[in-house]
UniProtKB/TrEMBL annotation:
Residues 66-115 form the Amino acid permease N-terminal domain. Keywords: Cell membrane, Chloride, Glycoprotein, Ion transport, Membrane, Phosphoprotein, Potassium, Potassium transport, Signal, Sodium, Sodium transport, Symport, Transmembrane, Transmembrane helix, Transport. It is found in: Cell membrane. The lineage of its organism: Eukaryota, Metazoa, Chordata, Craniata, Vertebrata. Residues 151-652 form the Amino acid permease/ SLC12A domain. This is Solute carrier family 12 member 1. It comes from the Eukaryota. GO terms for molecular function: sodium:potassium:chloride symporter activity. It comes from Lates calcarifer.
Length: 1039
């Protein structure tokens, strides 16, 4: 129903089918002139470095001035403007020619003074809400919350005292000697990570998601989203690893009693799958049941560990001696002290097998959403668990009680004290001959028997129970952690396809769907059935997570953001960095291809999230560092003088809000692209209370910036509230930007309705141009025949959307009749005009057809008139448009002017397809009827009045065009008419025309006459840009 209504509305309003891409242009305000009124001196000009001017002439009024000979004859009247010349672009002291200084913008623009002073020379969003400050939507009354002991300490200890303690620790001691280095290196990595994690989790409220939450809120969604999937997957695979450890123990028992079901590997798979199903049932039952099960398992595990220590002091029986156990003995300790790596094992391969035991430090953090006070519980419980378990691992010094190899055969007993040699010498001295183990592999000893703990203990079945407890508790913790982390990732909706798994059930918001997915993954890896294959994969995934946790702490500290205030103070940013580097190094040493695969997956996920740009803002340290870098770079730039080689057009486009002037914004964006500054500006002029204007401005700031970002315009949005539009524009001209990153070029649209807009509006428009010249901005005006402003279409669209909302909220039938009556379709003629306007407005968004950009470089303004079109040709959309250059000249030296321009362009390394010298610009236009009709309403006609009456009329209407003014500037007026004629003849089919903008001298040329000049110059032409640089070089031919 709703879709059909929307379709009906859009049928009545076809203009809503178009996309809109630029901004509201407000021309209702005024801008005051520069109060200083002082002279502008060219800081780049040094009179001591220049030779006397080369070109000089004396005019009919006796005035002597430097001027290029072709200027007068080319334009037909006296002008200070210079045609483009290579001498303006030379460095001071150039050996290849004299450096000439073009007239300054102020000399052309300021009030004309007949008496020139000797010392006057030429011149060359409201912050986004804190998402983490809100109460979590899933918090429900009656949910089970844990303290630091049950929630963190117990879980971490159970996870660390996992499968490695009873099944692999003896093997580690046998391969790596005493094993202290392996255990110590693991403890170093986990301790540094624990310190970093403690700092991060005490820097604000911690929600559910564990390591993913900590990383994403610290480094941002790109890092968090990439590591979140890997971390959740690693926990799911860890379930398989722990269950395989449990199944191995069960299979060993079956093997001892000759009760294998199929064979060893398949029995491990069968038992593992059954075990995971049982664990899944406990997990789905809820966190409370899972926590109770963990307490029971912890008690069993503690009893088993104590049982091991007791067993080492009980005198060894003959059976145990035959299997390599001789109680504590210094000779055994010394023999096992040095490593003895076998079967291609190395220190790091052994470390890779052992390290997954250390991954348990995140077991408590992974259920952060189920903790009463995560900020206090995670640091306290995690660090205490690392200390307790580290001491335990080191204390179980089985390498001082058990030899590496033993036969298990009592008949190998010999008389102690005989001659002994080889690797079994210690056993020989203790009364057993295990020399056969040097020839063939034995079944007992540290290197061969994974069930050494059971043999050493005081009561063997307790070790079996402890093994079951350790493996099952670790598997249960990982089975709970993986869905919890995955659910937090899905809730953030970073990967929209995974949002299905965000849904929770019950008072604890249990991720049932995540449990099922974890179950499937763990079963898949259980079918591998080989613990040594699974462990290195787990090591790499967890090490990647550890590396990012450490880097998060370093990054946040390095950014020195005022928001980084962790309550936990016992951390060091450089230690965290060392921890991150250590984790990365260990990843490659353990398994280089697995490390590359891990980073490859992480980079791909990072790129995916970066491209998708999730709509989240967590105040990450990445933002803080970006800000710090931006400030640092801006300050560095401010300490370096601008150089012409590094000039970039930094555009201040008077677009208004970010939707209603597409063509102007698109063209400005083409000039700046990703390599320069583009600033969209608007001035709010309060019609009512100022507070309302400020509210409107503040509400629109973030909205417009988001629209620019969403439509991939690399631009900033700036708004000011002033009494008039002109005053606001002056504020933007003066205060926009930062240091060297400030606009240098003003871009605005041509005022098509100047004849009907009213005197004040025209004075405001021309006044803004005067202000731009006063502040030494380059100035660009865009004119398109269809116009630029689509604000009325945007307003119609917004009204239609409001009507559509009403349609949804109210009864369908009642609101439907209302919406149709209020927002009826426009008349056919208006709709057609709107369609043409929208088509023209999107012209610069599309790829331009094969054609030309015609550059009419009539006056030397520093090169901006040439640089901007060249920049366009470097963009993809304009690559099929070739430059054509048009210059003014005189008949007797046309070829010479062409060669000079060709040489200049070659030095500038700017290619063009054609250079045309227009040598008849000085001729009178064929007709001036259009201009006369245009300015007739604004003429004073004081010529037929006597002097007193004329002065009174001029005083009453000072803005009108006087007969004296028309007569005085007749030649310049005729030049604009003539230029339009030659433009019509030569550039009617161009994709874009660029023309040097004429300048109106203040207090000499009236605003309406100047607007008439601009109008007749650009009338009935393709899209036209009027450009005037600030008369400082933006091009150079020096390297």
């Amino acid at each position: 129903m709703l879709l059909s209504v929307i379709k009906l509305i859009f049928t009545h309003h076809p203009i809503l089918a178009y996309s809109f891409s630029a901004a509201l242009y407000d021309s209702s305000g005024n801008l005051h002139m520069d109060s200083n009124g002082g002279e502008h001196v060219n800081s780049a000009y040094d009179s001591t470095l220049d030779e006397p001017p080369i070109y000089e002439t004396t005019f009919s009024n006796g005035e002597h001035r430097t001027v290029r000979p072709s200027v007068v004859s080319a334009f037909g009247h006296d002008t200070l403007d210079r045609v483009p010349n290579i001498d303006f672009y030379r460095n001071a002291g150039s050996v290849s020619g004299h450096r000439a200084v073009r007239p300054s913008l102020q000399e052309l623009h300021d009030v004309f003074q007949k008496v020139m002073e000797d010392d006057v020379e030429g011149s060359d969003g409201t912050p986004s809400d804190d998402l983490e400050s809100a109460v979590p939507i899933d918090s429900k009354k009656g949910a089970v919350k844990f303290g630091w002991i049950r929630g963190v300490l117990v879980r971490c200890m159970l996870n660390i005292w996992g499968v490695m303690l009873f099944i692999r620790l003896s093997w580690v001691f046998g391969q790596a000697g005493l094993g202290i280095v392996v255990i110590a290196l693991s403890c170093v990595v986990t301790t540094i990570t624990g310190l970093s994690m403690s700092a991060i989790c005490t820097n604000g409220v911690v929600r559910g998601g564990g390591a993913y939450y900590l990383i994403s809120r610290s480094l941002g969604p790109e890092f968090g989203g990439s590591i979140g999937l890997i971390f959740a997957f690693a926990n799911a695979v860890a379930v398989a690893m722990y269950v395989v450890g449990f199944a191995e123990t069960v299979v060993e028992l079956l093997k001892d009693h000759s009760a294998l079901m199929v064979d060893e590997i398949n029995d491990i798979r069968i038992i593992g799958c059954i075990t995971v199903v049982l664990l899944l049932g406990i997990s789905v039952a809820g966190m409370e049941w899972e926590a109770k099960a963990q307490i029971v398992l912890l008690i069993i595990l503690l009893v088993a560990i104590v049982n091991v220590f007791v067993g080492t002091f009980i005198p060894a029986t003959e059976d145990k001696k035959s299997k390599g156990f001789f109680n504590y003995n210094s000779k055994i300790f010394l023999e096992n002290f040095m490593p003895d790596f076998r079967e291609k094992e190395t220190f790091f391969s052994v470390f890779a097998i052992f390290f997954p035991a250390a991954t348990g430090i995140l077991a408590g953090a992974n259920i952060s959403g189920d903790l009463r006070d995560p900020q206090a519980a995670i640091p306290k419980g995690t660090l205490l668990a690392i200390v307790i378990t580290g001491i335990t691992y080191l204390a179980v010094a089985l390498s001082a009680t058990v030899v590496r190899d033993a036969t298990g055969n009592i008949t190998n007993a010999i008389v102690p004290g005989g001659f002994c040699n080889g690797s079994t010498a210690v056993a020989c001295e203790l009364g057993y001959d295990f020399s056969s183990c040097e020839v063939e592999k034995c079944k007992f000893g540290l290197m061969n028997n994974f069930q050494v703990m059971t043999m050493v203990s005081g009561f063997g079945p307790l070790i079996i129970a402890g093994t079951f407890s350790a493996t099952l508790s670790s598997a249960l913790a990982s089975l709970v952690s993986a869905p919890k982390v995955f659910q937090a990732l899905c809730k953030d909706n970073i990967y929209k396809a995974l949002y299905f798994f965000a849904k929770g059930h019950g008072k604890n918001n249990e991720p049932i769907r995540g449990y099922i997915l974890t179950f499937i993954i763990s079963v898949a890896f259980i079918l591998i059935g080989n613990l040594n294959t699974i462990a290195p994969i787990i090591s790499n995934f967890f090490l990647a997570s550890y590396a990012l946790i450490n880097f998060s702490c370093f990054h946040a500290s390095y950014a020195k953001s005022p928001g980084w205030r962790p309550a936990y103070k016992y951390y060091n940013m450089w230690l965290s960095l060392v921890g991150a580097v250590l984790c990365c190094a260990v990843m490659f040493v353990i398994n280089w291809w697995a490390a590359l695969l891990t980073y490859g997956i992480e980079i791909l996920l990072y790129i995916y999230v970066t491209v998708k740009k999730p709509d989240v803002n967590w105040g990450s340290s990445t933002q803080a560092v970006t800000f710090v870098s931006a400030v640092s770079n801006a300050l560095s730039l401010s300490g370096v003088d601008d150089h012409v080689k590094n000039f970039r057009p930094q555009i201040l486009a008077l677009t208004g809000s970010a939707r209603t002037r597409p063509a102007l914004l698109d063209l400005a964006h083409s000039f700046s692209k990703n390599y320069g500054l583009c600033l969209c500006g608007i001035s709010f002029s309060p019609q009512g209370p100022r507070s309302e204007a400020l509210q409107e401005m503040n509400a629109g700031m973030e909205k417009n910036q988001q629209w620019l970002r969403k439509t991939k315009r690399k631009a900033f949005y700036a708004a000011v509230a002033c009494d008039s539009f002109r005053e606001g524009t002056e504020s933007l001209l003066q205060a926009s930007g930062l240091g060297r990153m400030r606009p240098n070029t003003l871009m605005m649209g041509f005022k098509r309705n100047w004849r009907t807009a009213g005197t004040e509006s025209v004075q405001n428009y021309v006044g803004i141009l005067h202000d731009a010249f006063d502040f030494e901005y380059g100035t660009v005006i865009l004119r398109m025949n269809q116009g630029l402003d689509v604000s009325h279409i945007v307003e119609a669209e917004e009204e239609m959307l409001k009507a559509l909302l009403s349609l949804v909220q109210l009864s369908f039938f009642a609101s439907f009749s209302l919406s149709v009556s209020v927002c009826g379709p426009p008349p056919p003629q208006v709709a057609k005009m709107n369609e043409r306007l929208l088509e023209a407005s999107s012209q610069f968004k599309k790829k331009q057809p094969k054609g030309t950009i015609d550059v009419w470089w009539l006056f030397d303004d520093g090169g901006l008139t040439l640089l901007l079109p060249y920049i366009l040709t470097t963009r993809k959309k304009w690559k099929d448009s070739n430059l054509r250059i048009f210059i003014a000249g005189q008949p007797e030296r046309s070829e010479l002017d062409k060669q000079e321009m060709k040489s200049l362009l070659q030095k500038f390394r700017i290619n063009c397809t054609d250079i045309t010298v227009i040598d008849d610009i000085h001729l009178r236009p064929s007709s001036d009827r259009n201009l006369e009709d245009m300015i007739e309403p604004f003429r004073l006609h004081e010529g037929s009045k006597d002097t007193a009456q004329a002065e009174a009329m001029q005083k009453e209407q000072p803005w009108k065009i006087t007969d004296k003014e028309l007569s005085e500037f007749e030649e310049k007026t005729n030049l604009q008419l003539r230029l339009n004629e030659v433009l019509q003849q030569n550039s009617k089919s161009a994709n874009l025309i660029i023309v040097s903008m004429p300048i109106a001298r203040k207090e000499s040329i009236s605003d309406f006459l100047y607007m008439a000049w601009l109008d007749v110059l650009t009338k009935d032409l393709p899209p036209t840009l009027l450009i005037r640089g600030n008369h400082k070089s933006v091009l150079t031919f020096y390297s």
